[in-house]
Design goal:
Blueprint: H1 2-21, E1 64-69, E2 75-82, E3 92-101, E4 107-112, E5 121-125, E6 133-138
Antiparallel strand pairs: 1-4, 2-3, 2-5, 5-6
């Protein structure tokens, strides 16, 4: 009888351990149909959000900018770009388009925008021999 009591105690202990170790709901009775669980409220779907608007790239700088001259004699003149506002050829960088001055004494020449803000100088010569400077304009 003592052996049956020990076996019974061991079996009960085993059942208690198994019940405690079982995941919730295992071995539990199903709820009665008379008891209803609270209705789950529907979770609203997230509303689509507009993707952030990226600021557009700044407008590209113009390829060329005009350099205007006023009060000059009418005619067409050779124009160069120099590293200093000096007509000597040791400062010469490049030849620009010719300057056409109208009867009102004004005209302009287009200069690549990459030359601006670097302390360079537009030199207007009086003749193709480049022997005399008519005017200069630092850009």
């Amino acid at each position: 009888m003592k052996a049956i009591g020990c076996a019974l105690s061991a079996s009960v202990l085993l059942l208690v351990v198994q019940a405690c170790a079982a995941p919730p709901g295992v071995g539990a009775a199903a709820p009665s149909p008379a008891v209803s669980s609270p209705a789950a409220e529907p979770v609203p779907a997230p509303s689509p959000t507009a993707s952030p608007v990226k600021a557009g790239a700044p407008p590209a700088a113009p390829a060329t900018l005009p350099v205007a001259f006023f009060g000059q004699p009418a005619g067409t003149y050779p124009v160069h770009l120099h590293s200093a506002c000096n007509g000597t050829q040791k400062f010469h960088l490049t030849v620009l388009q010719g300057l056409s001055v109208g009867g009102d004494g004004s005209g302009s020449v287009e200069v690549p925008s990459s030359y601006f803000g670097r302390g360079l100088c537009v030199i207007v010569y009086t003749n193709t021999a480049l022997s005399r400077v008519l005017t200069t304009r630092e850009i």
